[in-house]
Amino acid sequence: MAVRPASNSFDAMTLAAAARRSSPPHSRIFMEALGTSLSQVAGDEQALRILAAVGATIAREQPVPVCNSLTDLKAAMNAGLQVLDWGQVDLYEAEKALEFVVVGYPCFEGVEAQTAFAAILEALLEGWLAQQAARSGLSMRLVERGSGPYPALIFRYERSGA
């Protein structure tokens, strides 16, 4: 696996159009309401825990097979994301970490919905990695939103506190 390039080769307009097509209005309305309501009722910290539990549950119900290489893992994760219509992932080796760059995910305009979706996706990816082998002390976290109106979501899988 290569080091992540500064920008990806996906055309932003194509991805934005695909994301809107894969995220019908009723789904966008639901995610907006969910993101806002969870934070209002449970508070931000508890809302993120609930959303992480949703992602972990999806990972258990839609598992990926055990993979023997990062190339196989990327293919399995992309197949899983395709089933959910949640975009595609590129996988890169970083210093003592793996980076996952997700593009083409469903497009949500509100910050609450974007945050809710990113929390679910983070837990989903971490759940899929946990299915590969138990490694204590490793965790997935969103580290960057790329630039532009429809940025890539960049997650790192590394030792907690790194």
Outline the structure in words.
This protein has five helices and four strands; from the N terminus they run ααααββαββ. The chain has helices at 12-22, 25-42, 44-61, 70-84, 111-130, and strands at residues 88-94, 97-103, 138-145, 153-159. A hairpin with a 7-residue loop joins strand 3 (138-145) and strand 4. Helix 2 (25-42) crosses helix 3, helix 2 (25-42) packs across helix 5 and helix 3 packs across helix 5. The longest helix is centred in the C-terminal third of the chain and has 20 residues, at 111-130. The model has no long low-confidence stretch (mean pLDDT 85).
Summarize the structure in short:
The chain is α+β, with helices and mostly antiparallel strands and 162 residues long. It is 51% helix and 18% strand. It contains five helices and four strands.
Gross geometry:
globular
Q: What ranges have pLDDT less than 50 throughout 5 or more consecutive residues?
A: none
* Helix count, DSSP H or I runs of 4 or more residues: 5
Give a quick account of the main beta sheet: strands, pairing sense, barrel closure: 4 strands, antiparallel
How many distinct beta strands?
4
Q: How much strand?
A: 15-25%
Helix content: 40-55%
Average per-residue pLDDT, rounded, comes to 85
Q: How are the strands of the biggest sheet laid out side by side?
A: 1-2-4-3
Radius of gyration equals 15 Å
Helix and strand composition category: alpha+beta
**Separation, N- and C-terminal Cα atoms:** 21 Å
Order of helices and strands: HHHHEEHEE
